[in-house]
Amino acid sequence: MALKATIYKAALQLSDMDRHVYDAPSVTIARHPSEADERMMIRVLALAMGWPADTSEGTLELAKDMWEPDEPALWHQNFSNEIVHWVEVGQPDDKRLLKACGRAQRVTVWAFQSSTPIWFDGIVNKVSRTDKLTVWQVPSEQSQALAALAQRSMQLTVTVQDGTVWVSEGDQSVEITPIKLMGPD
């Protein structure tokens, strides 16, 4: 018998002062049985950080990456089913990233493992020819602290200012300083 997804719900209060994005999206997260809290919370962080300022052409949504190998962790498809933004979480290989760059207007990777520098050194020469790709690293200790906020029902406040992200749930708060490994300025 196949294991089923565990459902999590997150109500976000997003205040991104760097991009002037203020919204309160609610998301239902189907957590794959093999997915850890850390990866799931990085997906939520990626959703908040990639939330579009203009939602008239749709929004960023959680996709079925662990169930469907041709889908990313998150994506923003407009109403014509064109992929506006493709978001990967973890350390995808260069072929997957280049394929995504061919399908989407922009591609973002959120890597969080301590081995990220080694992974990135191995693919940077292969993916540097595309101008659609942005790669972020969340320091491992910060992503682990973010994982500690995971609950089946979450009320998350996400505040972004000067490149620093604060994620709060109740009286707990985590400061995250993502490091841009590549991408447009």
UniProtKB/TrEMBL annotation:
Q: Which domain of life is it from?
A: Bacteria
InterPro entries the record matches: Restrct_endonuc-II-like, YaeQ, YaeQ_sf
Question: Which residues constitute the signal peptide according to the record?
Answer: none
Q: Which Pfam families match?
A: YaeQ
Q: Which PANTHER family does the record cross-reference, listed alphabetically?
A: SUCROSE PHOSPHORYLASE
Protein's UniProt name? YaeQ family protein
The species is Aquabacterium lacunae
Recall the taxonomic lineage recorded for the source organism: Bacteria, Pseudomonadati, Pseudomonadota, Betaproteobacteria, Burkholderiales
